[in-house]
Amino acid sequence: MNKFLKFLLGTFCALAISFIVGCVLFRLFTGMNPLTDWAVFVYNDVASKAFSIGAIPNIGLFYLFLNKDNYYSARGVIFSFILIGLYIILG
Asked: Is the Cβ–Cβ distance between 54 and 21 less than 8 Å?
C-alpha cells in the first residue's frame, strides 16, 4: 500500500474512533442522542469536549499500528490528534 494511503488510513480511523466514542459518551452522560440533537450538541460547546475525551482510545490505536509496523498509519493517528486539537482551539 502507498505511504500516503497508510497515512490517510490512520488519520480517518482515528477520527472515526474519536467521533464514535465521543457520541457514545455524550449519550451515556446526558441521555440525549447526539445525532438527532446535533444543535444542542454543537450549541452548548459539548462537541469539542466529547471529541477530546473520545480521542483517548486513539492511544491504543497508535500502539496497535506501531506493533504491526505500520509507521505511516501511526503518523496518521498523531496527525488526527493535531486535527482534534485545532478543532478544540478554533471551535
From this structure: yes
In sequence order, what DSSP letters do the residues of the chain get, joined into one string?
--HHHHHHHHHHHHHHHHHHHHHHHHHHHH-S-TTTSHHHHHHTTHHHHHHHHHTTTHHHHHHHHHHTT-HHHHHHHHHHHHHHHHHHHH-
Q: What's the pTM?
A: 0.86
Find the helix packing angle between 58-67 and 71-90, rounded to 10°.
160
Spatial distance between the Cα atoms of 70 and 79, rounded to a whole number of angstroms: 14
Instruction: Let me know the angle formed at the C-alpha of 42 by 86 and 33, rounded to the nearest 5 degrees.
Output: 125
Question: For the segment 61-87, what is each residue's pLDDT rounded down to a tens digit?
Answer: 999 999 999 999 999 999 999 998 898
Residue (of 19, 9, 2, 1) closest to 75 by Cα position: 9
